[in-house]
């Protein structure tokens, strides 16, 4: 055990996350503005999209809810929202542009739910919690982009909303490796079971009968 791990263990962090029997998958912001490198806000997320699709394709086939999110702003919001004064590149994610469309490589279907959000968390200012509660979901699998931003914010709010959370690390992407790794570590210590797509797929198969 490293000194860092020892500090967290002594403080009582890094406990296990229980897994229920009614999962759902939230795919955070795999929209072209994040996945298509012709845009300055994007990074190469092909491997993470492919890993996520192994989960969503299976989930859809057995009736497990698959929910996508995207960030899309109206023009009047650009100067009104403080977040966009810090993360100015996000202002390009405007309603009606290709940048806010979910990347077709994700395998998204017309029947899938798409949540449009205006902040980092998929829960903030949306009806996501109500949708999950209505479907009696007890465990949420969170994937997408970016690990250090919208994925982390969604994970924190998911826990605070009463859901057990699994984060397959190979299904999460970021623009840089350091914040990606640091946030996965922190989520594992405080909020979620950080695992991989193989483990999650095995569990989804088990709970689907």
UniProtKB/TrEMBL annotation:
This is Carbamoylsarcosine amidase. The keyword Hydrolase applies. Keywords: Hydrolase. Residues 24-198 form the Isochorismatase-like domain. PANTHER family: ISOCHORISMATASE HYDROLASE (PTHR43540:SF1), PEROXYUREIDOACRYLATE/UREIDOACRYLATE AMIDOHYDROLASE-RELATED (PTHR43540). SUPFAM superfamilies: Isochorismatase-like hydrolases. One of its GO terms (molecular function) is hydrolase activity. It comes from Pseudohalioglobus lutimaris. It comes from the Bacteria. InterPro entries: Isochorismatase-like_dom (IPR000868), Isochorismatase-like_hydrls (IPR050272), Isochorismatase-like_sf (IPR036380).
């Amino acid at each position: 055990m490293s000194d860092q791990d020892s500090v967290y263990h002594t403080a009582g962090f890094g406990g296990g996350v229980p897994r229920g029997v009614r999962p759902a998958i939230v795919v955070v912001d795999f929209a072209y503005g994040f996945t298509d490198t012709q845009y300055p806000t994007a990074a190469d997320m092909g491997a993470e999209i492919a890993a996520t699709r192994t989960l969503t394709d299976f989930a859809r086939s057995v009736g497990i809810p698959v929910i996508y999110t995207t960030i899309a702003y109206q023009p009047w919001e650009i100067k009104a929202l403080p977040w966009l004064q810090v993360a100015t590149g996000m202002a390009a994610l405007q309603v009606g542009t290709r940048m806010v469309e979910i990347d077709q490589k994700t395998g998204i279907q017309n029947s899938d739910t798409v949540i449009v959000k205006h902040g980092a968390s998929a829960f903030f200012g949306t009806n996501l919690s109500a949708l999950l509660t209505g479907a009696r979901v007890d465990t949420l699998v969170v994937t997408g982009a970016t690990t250090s931003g919208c994925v982390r914010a969604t994970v924190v709010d998911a826990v605070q909303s009463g859901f057990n959370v699994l984060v397959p690390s190979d299904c999460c992407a970021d623009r840089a490796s350091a914040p990606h790794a640091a946030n996965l570590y922190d989520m594992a210590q405080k909020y979620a079971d950080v695992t991989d797509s193989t483990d999650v797929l095995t569990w989804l198969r088990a709970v689907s009968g």
